[in-house]
Amino acid sequence: MTEKRTPYISIENATKVFGGYVALNDVSLEIHQGEVLCLLGDNGAGKSTLIKVLSGFHQPSSGIIRVEGREQPIDSPRDAADLGISTVHQFGGTFPLMSLERSFFAGREPTKGWGPFEVFDSKTAGEIVVREMQAMGITRVTDGKRLVGSLSGGERQVSAIARAVYFGAKVMILDEPTAALGVKEAAHVLRIVMQAKKRGLAVVLVTHNVTHAMTVGDHFAVLIHGAKAADFRRGERTREEITDLMAGGEAMAELEAELESYRSAPDGQQPQR
User: Fold this and answer.
1) Cβ(229)–Cβ(26) under 8 Å?
2) Which of 57, 88, 237, 248 has the most CB atoms within 10 Å of its CB?
3) Could you tell me the fold of the domain covering 1-96+168-237?
4) What are phi and psi of 93, to 5 degrees?
5) What are the boundaries of each domain within the chain?
């Protein structure tokens, strides 16, 4: 019998209501270190609300959050940071007109000097950011003074992930990290996700892309209209079943019926809707 592990974070019956709108409805999830949890769902499914609850931007209207088995409210982004929860947004949360070294250390700048003579230690910051980026496979970054805006979308994502790892993240939430990337860049970001998992981080991957989710995911949760529609482990559902869940069975049935009507219509004619 396999011993049940204590998740690093567990969400129990979380609900979030804005006015009369229920954005999150009685959702429970477990987030384990050394695993990738893929959070799937269409637009408006509740994914963004859930990650904002985890990152301290919203507090649940009801429900409990536990960290390592102990009840632990996350009342602010600072609370989340103190617990090792780091969120990387779709475009890396970076600043295009800022240098890599400044962006990497924003709010946590290394300094030199003392008192009124204390200044940003550009040399140390530059060396660290180049080292961390190259360790993640971005070998063409050789100067920390390079502008973030000169990087590709994938490189910006890697920069943000490298920053989270460097500052000791235990849980890394990636919000649609591959959405605007080409095939090669997306593949590189997914490799970085696997590296983070091997280092023992818990990764929450928010995505619409079932192929990307199935490539790296260990645990999957599908949200529909704010509620958890499915919760399963790797290998328990096929790609088609996951896609069907995300779209909702009725929507897929309607699409199949419409496609079939087009297939069966006489040449040159369109079926009646």
Assistant:
1) no
2) 88
3) Rossmann fold (3.40.50)
4) 60, 25
5) 1-96+168-237
